[in-house]
Specification:
Blueprint lengths: L3 H9 L1 H11 L8 H8 L7 H13 L9 H9 L7 E6 L21 E6 L6 H4 L1 H12 L9
Parallel strand pairs: 1-2
Helix pairs in contact: 1-2
Length: 150
């Protein structure tokens, strides 16, 4: 996606592009064809390709060539630790972002930090294991079964 030919391929066949990702980034059987077809309707949105390409390109290579954000990037580089209570969910079978890549991140947190690896779950934990994700979020918020009100 970071090359022009990749972006052209995404624009030419967004459904095919997404299907390849969904089939390769998670274990087989996590979704059925009807669920994919229903979700794929959103790929017809005229902004879908631009939003998708921006998200991947920004994370992978484009950060270095976005001058309007240089000041924010510099500010982020100066942050060594975060004090915000953090729950990090990682699919244990994620073949896109390897679980090993999220190991050892607790050193960057001064506040509570929990890394939860969901075994058998791939790149899309909220879709693949929604109940487990919801339980983890509710436990993290400290109110099993209900969200705290402001």
């Amino acid at each position: 996606m970071c090359l022009d030919s990749g972006a052209e391929a995404v624009r030419a066949d967004p459904k095919g592009f997404a299907r390849i990702q969904w089939d390769t980034w998670s274990p087989p059987g996590w979704l059925d064809d009807s669920e994919f077809e229903e979700t794929a309707k959103s790929f017809a949105n005229p902004d879908w390709a631009d939003v998708t390409l921006n998200a991947y390109r920004w994370r992978l290579v484009a950060r270095a060539v976005r001058p309007p954000y240089d000041a924010l990037q510099e500010r982020l580089r100066s942050v060594e630790t975060l004090g915000t209570p953090t729950l990090m969910l990682q699919g244990g079978a994620d073949s896109c972002d390897a679980p090993a890549d999220s190991e050892g991140q607790e050193k960057f947190f001064t506040g509570p930090h929990q890394r939860l690896v969901l075994n058998g779950v791939g790149h899309f934990p909220a879709r693949e294991a929604s109940g487990r994700v919801a339980d983890a979020v509710l436990a993290h918020l400290g109110s099993p079964g209900r969200l705290p009100l402001p």
